[in-house]
Amino acid sequence: MATSLASPVSVQVSVEKIYVKDLSLENPGAPQTFRLSEAPSIEIGLRTRADQIEPDVYECVMTVTVTATAGDRTVFLVEVAQAGIFSVQGTTEETLQPVLAMHCPAMLFPYARQAIAHATMLAGFPPVQLQPINFEALYAQQLAGKAAEAGAPVAAA
Q1: Which pTM value belongs to this model?
Q2: Which of 19, 31, 105, 131 qualifies as a FRET site for 138, CA 20 to 30 Å off?
């Protein structure tokens, strides 16, 4: 499937493979945690990275960590590293980074969301349904943070 991104340059992105690179589930307090009267607190972490594996071919990995706690006890912890191999053509140095930071993670997110929901159900809990993520806004925040660290003015998007 080829996708054309809106830019002066005709960028073509195609998915070669989507896969789970790593999946971890910890349910350390079972069976006692099934008897908790309070709802656990849920914390979600997200990291992405991309590496070139061949000319015009990149592996993008999105790692999502969901930690549920009750007081000082971990109820469950699920982490999935959802990955994909993407062919990216027609980019320049300026257009490649946004493709790898926004477009590829957005294509991986539904798979990571499904893996997290399924893993929490396997642990004996209701599925954690991750809310949609605006990867364009996250990328803009990341750029603004880098600009602030460097002391440069931030351009309005």
Answers
A1: 0.84
A2: 19
